[in-house]
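hey team, just a heads up i'm posting the complex here instead of the shared drive bc the drive is being weird again. everything in one block, sequence lines first with there labels, then the predicted structure for the whole assembly after. its two chains so it's a bit long, scroll down
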Amino acid sequence: RKEVEQDPGPFNVPEGATVAFNCTYSNSASQSFFWYRQDCRKEPKLLMSVYSSGNEDGRFTAQLNRASQYISLLIRDSKLSDSATYLCVVKAGGGYNKLIFGAGTRLAVHP
Amino acid sequence: NAGVTQTPKFQVLKTGQSMTLQCAQDMNHNSMYWYRQDPGMGLRLIYYSASEGTTDKGEVPNGYNVSRLNKREFSLRLESAAPSQTSVYFCASSPDGGDTEAFFGQGTRLTVV
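-- predicted structure starts here --
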C-alpha cells in the first residue's frame, strides 16, 4: 500500500464549479500535511498547509481528519487557471522531515 | 533569489553511461531531497538528506548514489544509466520544523536510450 493515496482523476469541471479532492495516508505518526500544486512540466509549489482545525485561503479550504488519516481540499468557484495537478503531501514527525507525495489529482476546468 | 538550482535541465544518456545531477540551494536549509517523477506516478523519493554529511534512502534508491558534502549542495549520481531511469528529476530543500514549505528546483529531464 502506498503511504499517500489520491484519486488520480482527471476531474473535468466547468468554471464556477466546486470540486473536492481527497487523500489518505498510512503512517499514523505523520505530523504535517500540505497540498501542492503542479502545472504541466513545472516544479511543484506549495498551495497551502493543512491544519487539524481546518483552514481556508480564499477559494481553497483544507481539512484534516487524523482519526481517519484523511485530508481534503475543496476548491470553490473554479477558475480556468486552477487547472493543474494537486499533490497531497505528508511529512513524518519527530524531527524527521521526509516529505512523501501522493501521485496527484488532475483538475481540468473548462469554460 | 536563486532558491534551488538544478543542472542540467535536459540530458540524454546512452545505456551504461554515468552522470551526476547537481543541486544547490542558497536558503540555508538542512533538509534536501531528490525525487523522480514518472507519468501517473507522482513524485517518488529517491534519497533524503537531513543535514550535511547524512543521507537516507527513500522509496526508489536502487541505481542511484548521492552525496551531501556541504549544506548547500546535494548531488545525485547514476553510475550506469538504464532506460528505466528515464524520468524527470526534482531536487528540493526545506527548513527544519513541522509546518515548513519545501522549495523545488526546475527539474532535470533525463532520457536514457
